[in-house]
Every structure is written in structure tokens, then in C-alpha cells.
Design a protein that fits this description.
It is a single chain. The chain is about 65% helix and about 5% strand. By secondary structure, it is mainly alpha-helical. The longest helix has 28 residues.
Length: about 750
């Protein structure tokens, strides 16, 4: 007993040395859950074996002693992360208590129930423990099978608790589904305890009862067991798991192409563009097959396209992240504007199975899964541009910022120790460099061997890494302003470097709920809490200023922005955002001159083109008294009344109003087309974009002209107007000072146009 308590304390203290896992919360509960289950089994087995030897195997005495011991062990385990908070930052020392109660505490209780059954039925200590461990082994095997065989990335388990799925989904909480699942577990526990009391004799033998009494007791057990079994058999219906049937019950639309079965929801944005979505799937297939020297998956790939991140999270577990299951030949996407920016990447994971291991189709050697190669491979096979920057340019930015990580640590579990932006970019650029310099075949060997560089390239990683870094250092085309503009993107730390990540996500959800209900005082309070939780994240200060402005407190909003602007080590992106928000405050006050000065300060900072276009629109509004109120209604920066639908309708109507103002027809037509494209009305948007691009209309900037051309290109490809798409692409390619990323993007558009033009009809 003393040894068990000491061991519990040592395990708890050991966990405190690890990020996230050392604090009370989701990770701590998930890691400690199975340990607590085994500990509970040990307590139950020991009690039952002793009571059986004394011929005093009765439930109530066992329960009293067991509850006391489990309470002591739970108290020790609960105290350790509180002690650990002395040397490891804990944003909310007791905030993870619900996870502890729902996880390790209930896991230990369920383990104890298994333990008393095992101790009662088996003749030796070893057999008793193995028998008691059997339900946990079976439950774990079932959970792993579901993760392997079914379209689900989350898991609820009696002896492990809750596994949320992707580490990149920071919003993890004890929600209603977890509560229902634990209620279901408690019903099963009641079945086991009632059966123990009804049929187990004090000597560990099953009672011999008169027929009537035996049937009565059996009926009592059945009253509890039947609903428990009924709930368990419909686990997907209750949200405890998911399967193809539970997802296709919602995604009832189906498009079958040569290589895909695409599941989507009718009467949604995806349904309106499903033909283009199908062609994009096939284009991604053809592109990847060419890059991988003709390799392709055997059989069709099933693609689930969810209309929202919320529905995706509820149905299969992954909310804000896209997911692939190479061994099932399945990908899971949520709605994005055409062309889907992550489709090619997720499909690359499935293509990776052609060179990956035989079980999961990934990069694995033994039990070690090489996360860096898995994601680096997919990023290299489907590189994504960031406006002017191609994949190698983005790695060059990391190098010049001093943030390019060493490759050896991220070729494994260390991949998650870096932010996703940093890790994906570095691993992807390196893998792409290997393909560009040595062809695909060695990378295929490297992937299939889980990272054996000797077998794939005849030498270790280090010389290849040095060669790649020298290549990055010698690249042209990355300007100082590109480095400054990308700095904020690479500054956000990984979830394991943010001890308050999950609590911050919960607070952000509270802000969204409060704002949606018009409770701006509550939203402001939550923003202040978020600022104190993560003072190193200046985005929270921007959010606070915005909430104050929405509540009508423009003076306080300006004060928060002024204070934020004095913070040291701000990136150009944040400085521009502060100045932009300051201009919005002044414009809302009616002070156009001050607003223009703020906007000019913002636009002087290096930043991406999407932000530049919005600033150019704001500057135009500040410079023209007639345009000011109309643009304010279009942008609605501090709208406290309208919901998303109202704002969309208002923006559409206001864009049409701008188009009617003298000298602003081009701007208004462009903005109106953007609103139509937001609802996949590409046929209606295309003529407006043609009008906006008429030289006589004078769009305000080269960036807006480029954006209008890209929007027209997308609309024409969706609609099948390939002749005009080629002409528009030629105009884009003819622009001056193109970055490597833009050149690569336009090359892909050229391939897409020709593929779509010759693709078979579905």
C-alpha cells in the first residue's frame, strides 16, 4: 500500500517535468488515465484476494476500503501537478480538475471494479491481475481498431478517458459527449457491481440460489445491462465514435469520378461547385502521380467534404485541421474556396502509402513513426505558396529569422515541439530539395524505411542538411520586406510551448459566444483574461481593442492600441495591424485626417498583399468624404448588431452602392464580385470582374488588379470558360516583379486549366 502511494507520487512528479502533461488538464488526464486504471486494478485485486482468503468477500466492505485507498491515491496524483506549478508555469492550477475527475479518478474506479472481479474469480495473484486487466486490453484493442478501421480520429475509452485526436486542435474541453460517455460507463459499472453483490459468494464462488431468487437477481442485473448494451451498440449515434454510416447519414451527396468517391452535403457551397471540386480531385491525382513517377493508390479514394469545421469536429473529431488516413484511402476536408488549398497535401498522404509501410502506409521503422518525413513528404509533393514566396523561399525566411530548426530532432516525435508553420516548412523544403536534386526514388526509399538515410542516400542526414542550407543561403528573390512580412507567421509557438493553449482556446470560445449574444462586457472581460494568460501574444491586445470599440468605448480602444504599440519586439505585421485598427477608430469618430495618417503608417509596414488591399481600401475611404460612410458600412469594423448573414447582405448592397459612386465603379464591381464568390456565385461574379478590370475603371492599385484577375481566373475555371482563363493567366504572368511563389502558382494554374479543359464529364 505504501509502495503504491510512493509510486503514484513519483509518477506524478515525473510528469511535472514535461510540457502540458505536467499541468492539470487534457494531456495530464490522458497520460495518467491508463496508469490510474492499472492502479485501481491492483487495489481491487489485492482487496478481493485478501477478502476471499478470509471467506469475507462482500461488496460493501470492499467498497469502503477501496474508496478510501483510491481517494488517497487520487489526492496524491492531484497534488503533484499543483506542486509542479512551483517550477512549471500553470495558467490555471485548478482549471484542469474536471479532466482529472473525468479521467484518472473514474479510470481508477473502473479499474477497481475489474480488480475485485479478477481477484474473486482467479486462484492466483498473477491470474487475478491478468483476468482483471482483460477488459482494459479488450477496450483498448477496440478503440485502436476503430481508429484504424473507421473514419474517426477521436476516442472515448473507459480506462483511458478522452483522446481528442489532432494535436493542432487546441479547443479541448469536457463537453456533453464526454459526460454522456462517462454516464454510460457508470451504468456499466452499476451492472458489474450489482452482479457482484447478487451472485458472488463470500468464498469467491458463485452463489447457488433457488431458481426464483436467481431469476429475480438476474432480472435486476438485466434491467441495467440491457440499456447499457443498447447504448454501446449505438455508440456512433451517441457521438462516442463514428463510422461511415454515421457520416454519410449527414454527407448524403455523392459524386463518383474515375479515382474518387466524394461525399458532400447537398444544398451547401460544396454542392454548388461539386463538378469543379471533382475535377480538382482528379487534377490533384494526376499531378501527384506524375511527381511520384507513375505511382498511384490501388482503388478509389473516398473523400469526405464537410460544409463546416464545427460539423467535421462533431462527426469525426478533427475540426480546424484536414486529415488523411492512408491505410483506408480516405481524406477528410472542410469547405474552403476553390481550389481547395489543402486537398493536394492530404491526397499526398494517401499516395505516400505506395512507398510507406504495409500497415499504415506511412513512414515507419518498427514502432517509431517518422512524423517529420510523413508531413515533409506530403508538403514536398504538394508545395503551397505564400503569395510571393514558394516553399524554398519560406524556408529561406526561417533561415534569415534564425528559426530554421535542425532536421534530426523533427524527424520523429520532436516534430510537434515546433509550431506547425515552422516544422512543415522546414521538413517540406528539405524533402523537395532532395527530389529536385536526386529524383523521387531515393525519397521513396527514405519514406519506406522510416528515415534510413544510409539506405536511401548512401550516407547520413548531416551532409544532406548542410547542402540544403547552403542552397537556401544562395537563393535569390527573397527581399528584406518578405522576411519582415512573414515573421509573425513563424512566431507563434507550438501547443507544447504554450502552457495555457487549451485554456486560451476555451476563453476564446467564451468570447465568441458572448459576442454572438451581444454581451460585450463579458467579451471584454474574457479578452482581458486572455491578455493576462498569454501576454506574449499581441493579437490578444488587438482583440481587446476591437471588443472595446464594438461596445462603443472608442477612447479605451485607442488607449489599448497606444499601449500595445509601445510593446517591444513587435513584428511589422502586428505594427501594421495596430495602426490599421487605430485608423478604424479614428474613422469611426469621423476624423478622416487622423485615420489617413494611421493607415499610411500601417501601409508603410511590410505585409502580405491581402492586408495591403484592405489598407488601400481604407485609405481611399479616408481620402474621399463621399466614400467614407459607404466603405465604413462595407467593412463594418465595429458592427455590434448584425450577424454573419446580415453583414454579408449589407456588404453586398454596399458594394453595389460603391459601384454607383462617380469614379469608383471598378472598386465597387470588384468588391461586389468578391461577395458573390463568397457564396460560390461565380457565373454572376465573372462579368463584374471583367468590368472592374476594364482600364477605364481604374482599380486603386496593382494589388487589387492582381486580385481581380485571380478571382476572374478562378471563376472562369469553375464555369469552364477556359479561353478567357488562359487570357487572364497570360495577363497575370505578364505583371512585373513576380515572386517565385507567384510564378509557381501560375504554372500550376496553367496545368489546371489544360487538365480541366480535357477532363471527362462526370
Amino acid at each position: 500500500m505504501i509502495r503504491r502511494r510512493v509510486l503514484t507520487a513519483l509518477i506524478g512528479l515525473g510528469l511535472t517535468s514535461m510540457p502540458l502533461v505536467g499541468n492539470l488538464g487534457y494531456e495530464h488526464a490522458f497520460v495518467l488515465g491508463p496508469v490510474a486504471s492499472i492502479g485501481g486494478i491492483g487495489v481491487g485485486v489485492g482487496q478481493a484476494r485478501a477478502a476471499r482468503a478470509a471467506a469475507n468477500l462482500r461488496l460493501l466492505p470492499l467498497a469502503r476500503v477501496g474508496a478510501r485507498e483510491l481517494a488517497i491515491l487520487s489526492a496524491i496524483a492531484f497534488a503533484m501537478p499543483l506542486v509542479g506549478s512551483l517550477w512549471q508555469r500553470s495558467c490555471q492550477p485548478l482549471g484542469g480538475a474536471p479532466f482529472f475527475a473525468m479521467g484518472p479518478m473514474l479510470c481508477a474506479a473502473l479499474g477497481w471494479i475489474c480488480g475485485i472481479w479478477g481477484g474473486a474469480l482467479a486462484r492466483t495473484d498473477r491470474r487475478a491481475f491478468l483476468l482483471a486487466l482483460t477488459p482494459m486490453i479488450a477496450s483498448t484493442a477496440l478503440g485502436l481498431w476503430r481508429l484504424y478501421a473507421h473514419p474517426v480520429v477521436f476516442a472515448f475509452d473507459p480506462f483511458w478517458g478522452y483522446f481528442s485526436g489532432s494535436v493542432y486542435d487546441e479547443a479541448v474541453s469536457v463537453g456533453p459527449t464526454y459526460l454522456r460517455f462517462r454516464g454510460y460507463n457508470m451504468l456499466g459499472a452499476a451492472v458489474a457491481l450489482v452482479a457482484f453483490a447478487a451472485f458472488m459468494g463470500p468464498d469467491g464462488r458463485l452463489r447457488r440460489l433457488p431458481r426464483r431468487e436467481a431469476l429475480t437477481r438476474l432480472g435486476l442485473v438485466a434491467i441495467l445491462a440491457l440499456p447499457w448494451a443498447a447504448i454501446g451498440l449505438r455508440g456512433s449515434h451517441h457521438g462516442f465514435t463514428a463510422d461511415r454510416a454515421s457520416i454519410t447519414e449527414v454527407l448524403t451527396g455523392t459524386l463518383e469520378t474515375e479515382h474518387f468517391v466524394i461525399r458532400y452535403a447537398p444544398r451547401t457551397a460544396d454542392a454548388r461547385e461539386i463538378t469543379a471540386i471533382g475535377r480538382e480531385h482528379e487534377f490533384a491525382w494526376a499531378t501527384l502521380r506524375a511527381r511520384m513517377n507513375g505511382r498511384e493508390p490501388a482503388g478509389k479514394v473516398e473523400s469526405f467534404v464537410f460544409p463546416s469545421t464545427e460539423l467535421k469536429r462533431r462527426l469525426m473529431g478533427a475540426g480546424t485541421v484536414q486529415v488523411a488516413a492512408p491505410w483506408r484511402r480516405q481524406i477528410y476536408l472542410d469547405h474552403r474556396p476553390f481550389p481547395h488549398p489543402v486537398l493536394h497535401h492530404e491526397l499526398a498522404h494517401v499516395f505516400g502509402a505506395t512507398v510507406g509501410d504495409s500497415l499504415f502506409g506511412v513512414s515507419r521503422r518498427g514502432l517509431a513513426i517518422n512524423i517529420g518525413l510523413i508531413e515533409g513528404f506530403a508538403t514536398a509533393m504538394a508545395p503551397r505558396e505564400a503569395e510571393r514566396l514558394d516553399l524554398h523561399d519560406q524556408a529561406t525566411v526561417l533561415r534569415r529569422l534564425g528559426k530554421l530548426p535542425e532536421l534530426a530532432p523533427i524527424m520523429g516525435a520532436g516534430f510537434f515541439g515546433k509550431s506547425s508553420q515552422v516544422a512543415y516548412t522546414a521538413a517540406g523544403s528539405f524533402c523537395l530539395y532532395l527530389v529536385e536534386t536526386r529524383g523521387f526514388e531515393p525519397l521513396g526509399v527514405l519514406y519506406g524505411t522510416g528515415g534510413d538515410f544510409e539506405q536511401a542516400y548512401g550516407g547520413p542526414l548531416a551532409p544532406l542538411e548542410s547542402e540544403w542550407i547552403a542552397f537556401l543561403d544562395g537563393r535569390d528573390g527573397v527581399r528584406d520586406q518578405d522576411v519582415a512580412a512573414a515573421a509573425q507567421r513563424f512566431r507563434r509557438p507550438s501547443v507544447f510551448e504554450r502552457p495555457c493553449a487549451h485554456h486560451a482556446a476555451d476563453v476564446r470560445a467564451q468570447i465568441d459566444r458572448a459576442s454572438a449574444r451581444g454581451k460585450f462586457a463579458d467579451a471584454i472581460g474574457s479578452w482581458r483574461e486572455l491578455c493576462s494568460l498569454e501576454p506574449e501574444q499581441p493579437e490578444h491586445g488587438l482583440g481587446l481593442a476591437h471588443a472595446l470599440a464594438m461596445a462603443g468605448d472608442l477612447d479605451d480602444a485607442a488607449g489599448v492600441l497606444d499601449e500595445l504599440a509601445r510593446a517591444p519586439d513587435l513584428t511589422s505585421t502586428i505594427r501594421a495591424a495596430i495602426a490599421e485598427r487605430r485608423g478604424d477608430v479614428e474613422l469611426a469618430r469621423g476624423n478622416r485626417e487622423a485615420a489617413n495618417l494611421a493607415y499610411q503608417a500601417a501601409i508603410a509596414q511590410p505585409q502580405g498583399e491581402s492586408r495591403l488591399r484592405l489598407l488601400q481600401l481604407r485609405i481611399a475611404a479616408a481620402a474621399d468624404a463621399e466614400l467614407t460612410p459607404v466603405v465604413l458600412r462595407y467593412l463594418a469594423p465595429f458592427d455590434a448588431e448584425g450577424d454573419d448573414m446580415v453583414r454579408a447582405v449589407q456588404a453586398t448592397a454596399t458594394a453595389a452602392e460603391i459601384a454607383r459612386l462617380p469614379g469608383h465603379a471598378g472598386l465597387g464591381n470588384y468588391l461586389l464580385a468578391r461577395q458573390l464568390l463568397n457564396v460560390q456565385a461565380s457565373a454572376a461574379a465573372a462579368p463584374l470582374l471583367v468590368a472592374a478590370l476594364d482600364p477605364s475603371e481604374r482599380l486603386p492599385s496593382p494589388e487589387m488588379i492582381r486580385a481581380a484577375r485571380l478571382a476572374l481566373l478562378e471563376a472562369d475555371v469553375v464555369q469552364g470558360n477556359f479561353a478567357r482563363a488562359r487570357s487572364t493567366l497570360a495577363a497575370l504572368r505578364g505583371e512585373a516583379d513576380l515572386g517565385n511563389g507567384q510564378v509557381a502558382s501560375y504554372d500550376e494554374w496553367a496545368q489546371r486549366i489544360e487538365f480541366f479543359a480535357t477532363a471527362s464529364q462526370f
